[in-house]
Amino acid sequence: DNGLSFVRDFERLLGDEFFAKIKSFTPMNTETGDLEGELIKYLEKLERLGGIDIFFLGLGPEAEAASHLAYIKPNSGARFSDVAGIIPISPSILEHHINKFKAGGSEVSEADETECRAATHILTLGPAAILGTKKIVQSIVDASTAPAKRQSFKRVVETELSADETELRKQLDENPGLWIRLHKNVRAFILPDVLI
Questions:
Q1: Which of 34, 182, 3 is CA-nearest to residue 108?
Q2: Bridge-partner residues for 193, per DSSP?
């Protein structure tokens, strides 16, 4: 029930009416001593359910107007074939995560923040899982508290994706936010403060 949990945040933002329409909401279990084993169980469950219908994600700002996507950081080497991974949490991602939740109105106790700051890794889905979903819903908010997000979003929108496969892989590695541009069914919700 940590206030910095994505499950709590989705419940707060989307509400009971939304979740009443959902057949299966499948969050990852991170309360385990065996992250790798839990990740494998999670992927097996997704496969049994027939894959991912809707993938919710945001856009996190990084240096040089790059962005992280599903906590995949620039120059991490993520490939088209990567389904999931266990990623070390960088200080920039940790601060972004905590500040985003606080700015969004999540109730965060001191104990919640202490627990979050003690985390060393995060489970995430990779490009293969993200691009394999039926629909992506992207929410790009909180530029007033994360102003670098404006330049990151602009770079994602304005970058011309290369037709050369080697160059495209380089672009995606340098700016993981670009992965979303390869999906054919994306719905983005962008607050006006991102476009200023």
A1: 3
A2: none
Cα–Cα distances in Å, from 189 out to 70, 142, 165, 186? Answer: 16, 12, 29, 10
Q: What's the angle, vertex CA 5, arms to CA 140 and CA 17, rounded to 5?
A: 70
Which residues are paired to 122 by β-bridges?
87
pLDDT in tens, the chain (196 residues): 787 877 777 777 777 888 788 877 888 888 788 989 999 999 999 999 999 999 988 888 899 999 999 989 999 999 999 999 998 888 877 887 788 788 777 888 999 899 888 888 888 999 999 999 999 999 887 788 788 999 999 999 999 999 999 999 999 999 999 999 999 999 998 888 898 8
Give 98's contacts (C-beta < 8 A, 6+ positions apart): 4, 108, 113, 116, 117
Which H or E run includes 67?
Answer: strand 67-68
pTM for this structure?
Answer: 0.85
**Beta carbons of 68 and 93 less than 8 angstroms apart:** yes
Question: For residue 185, what are the CA distances in angstroms to 68, 75, 150?
Answer: 20, 26, 23
Quick check: helix, strand or coil at residue 122?
strand
Nearest to 138, CA basis, from 91, 92, 191, 95: 191
Task: State how far the Cα of 91 lies from the Cα of 60, in Å rounded to an integer.
Answer: 13
